[in-house]
Amino acid sequence: MSVGSLLILPGDGIGPEVMAEVRRIIDWYGEKRDLTFDVSEDLVGGAAYDKHGTPLTDATMDHAQEVDAVLLGAVGGPKYDDLDFSVKPERGLLRLRKEMDLFANLRPAQCFDALADFSSLKKDVVAGLDIMIVRELTSGIYFGEPRGIFEEGNERVGINTQRYTESEIDRVARSAFELAMKRDKKLCSMEKANVMESGILWREVVTEVAKDYPEVELSHMYADAGAMQLCRWPKQFDVIVTDNLFGDLLSDAAAMLTGSLGMLPSASLGTPMENGRPKALYEPVHGSAPDIAGQGKANPIACILSFAMALRYSFDLGEEADRLEAAIEQVLADGKRTADLLGEEGVTPVSTSGMGDAILEAL
Amino acid sequence: MSVGSLLILPGDGIGPEVMAEVRRIIDWYGEKRDLTFDVSEDLVGGAAYDKHGTPLTDATMDHAQEVDAVLLGAVGGPKYDDLDFSVKPERGLLRLRKEMDLFANLRPAQCFDALADFSSLKKDVVAGLDIMIVRELTSGIYFGEPRGIFEEGNERVGINTQRYTESEIDRVARSAFELAMKRDKKLCSMEKANVMESGILWREVVTEVAKDYPEVELSHMYADAGAMQLCRWPKQFDVIVTDNLFGDLLSDAAAMLTGSLGMLPSASLGTPMENGRPKALYEPVHGSAPDIAGQGKANPIACILSFAMALRYSFDLGEEADRLEAAIEQVLADGKRTADLLGEEGVTPVSTSGMGDAILEAL
Ligand SMILES: CC(C)[C@H](C(=O)O)[C@@H](O)C(=O)O
Ligand SMILES: CC(C)[C@H](C(=O)O)[C@@H](O)C(=O)O
């Protein structure tokens, strides 16, 4: 049975390696569960630039608009540091987010039991941690105009613009409230309303949306205090909603705190397409890790869990997602560890593909 | 001997309580060391709003421009949450920073040995930690125009502008390199040059300034990766330089990680005045903590250490600063702890003024 179409964009660095393991999982679903995906693969980021002189061709962009889900590895690397801003690898990813209008970026920060020792935080601070950060992804200072480097008098000035409309805030707030309803019904919104007018509007709109979700306990926190509280006692949070830039920093910090960075997936969702499925892109939270690329050291789990999120959110295959996640828990409980997770006693080191083997076996 | 003039602005919340202890220390210097300060005191923040309808009067602003150093407690509190943006307590502090042109905000993130257990991080990750974050304080999105909430079509839009000129980046970078020269000669600059043009200019200018400091090892990091690395292994850093908004989040996170938040001072420095002393404002990193205000629970040490920084940077009394810092170490080693630092075995709880007593005794 064909369940839908999937565009795979491995990207740069460890992207292709971890994605190769996802492909094996996808094949397994076709062979063993009769769930076949109409898979295509293309280039993004530095890889696309190397071939086409642009980090995302129009053809790839068009294709991404048509599929049920995009699965992305990672983009970027020092090789591209000196490229002009307009063709940097990141622009490919940002164009996908923007043109697909993927406004809600779901970033779970979850501590896997078997890995709690890996956190730089004390075990009781992180064990069992499970929070969800909802980051606005298509607006704010990432995309606001005017932007650029301009001459002014005798010198240059660098300008970027934070811009949020009420409707942009409204829709991402609704996504966050919906998620909170399915979880512990607690939502914390973070901005700098004490310093930024865009933060004031943010707080106002979120407070307004809250009226439609009377069961959810809403709180507000300045983003700097939020950064502190995430470091101090992250378990105080359930769902966090915040803007594009604060979300970038806060979700990365939260992911690192779990000790499970190589394990964390993300989903970026837009509005429903004609077939009712939301526009969607899935990617691991970790970056392209150019320093370990091509050495079989990368942990494919974050990317595989991103595929699990696709099963759940795009293909309505929640049970299959559960199955895949359970297989991964199993493998971790058995002590299999990629290079990023070594250090404990009594674990078995495995390579990127060794981890893929183990997960397939557990499936 | 009169060593210079000091304007004390206790502000809101626990500000007045912790400042009362500083005044006792100042008196001690006059009586026992013949070092007298020409001290005046005034209102800022909510306290100023309550009396004058503005978080900082012009008269206070003028006075701040004339003194050798300003010592501030903290501003803000829920009581003022619904005030119009233009008269919020924070505007008083921001006006001081801007009009005094205090472009370099020095925020040490230091872990006090006696308090390493207080961190949510594992002891080996934080014990002995000593980094310095230099945050640009007078520009960026805190002050850029246009800003505000505007009508656009049928809805409102919140706008803030990140703006950095080359000379603004140059001068704060130089402060950071100077500090690095006096420390471990390592500087890490953080921005989002992969996403923001203002970050590209930031990176370019810092790289240019580095030519004047060939002994300092300069690195660059994206701010989200910086947030991660601060959480993972903060000891990799010596001095960090970053912009106003990133500095707000990153320095707060770093301060919290040390476990010594109630202990951390900060200095905000501008250009030299006629007498050769820099324009300067000193304040604790912690906020106004309205929840514990007036209960004798506040830790006055961050504010007292801010005065120690004033001794060092404004009054050229480095040895006296050392003496004061040593007295504080002594008191901690003796096991005296304010309410924020209780929990260990064998320590002696003290009130805010009890901590002041102990420090005076150690002096
Ligand atoms: C690669 C980069 C453009 C991106 C961002 O800043 O959003 C990344 O840090 C992320 O968080 O997905
Ligand atoms: C009180 C507030 C305006 C201030 C800031 O955002 O700069 C505070 O968070 C700080 O870091 O000093």
UniProtKB/TrEMBL annotation, chains A, B:
The gene is leuB. It catalyses: (2R,3S)-3-isopropylmalate + NAD(+) = 4-methyl-2-oxopentanoate + CO2 + NADH. GO terms for cellular component: cytosol. Mg(2+) binds at residues 224, 248, 252. One of its GO terms (molecular function) is 3-isopropylmalate dehydrogenase activity. Residues 5-359 form the Isopropylmalate dehydrogenase-like domain. Keywords: Amino-acid biosynthesis, Branched-chain amino acid biosynthesis, Cytoplasm, Leucine biosynthesis, Magnesium, Manganese, Metal-binding, NAD, Oxidoreductase. Its cofactor is Mg(2+); Mn(2+). NAD(+) binds at residues 77-90, 287-299. The record marks 142, 192 as: Important for catalysis. The keyword Magnesium applies. One of its GO terms (biological process) is L-leucine biosynthetic process. Binds 1 Mg(2+) or Mn(2+) ion per subunit. It is found in: Cytoplasm. This is 3-isopropylmalate dehydrogenase. The keyword Oxidoreductase applies. InterPro entries: IsoCit/isopropylmalate_DH_CS (IPR019818), IsoPropMal-DH-like_dom (IPR024084), Isopropylmalate_DH (IPR004429). Gene3D superfamilies: Isopropylmalate Dehydrogenase. Pathway: Amino-acid biosynthesis; L-leucine biosynthesis; L-leucine from 3-methyl-2-oxobutanoate: step 3/4. Its main location: cytoplasm. Signal peptide: none annotated.
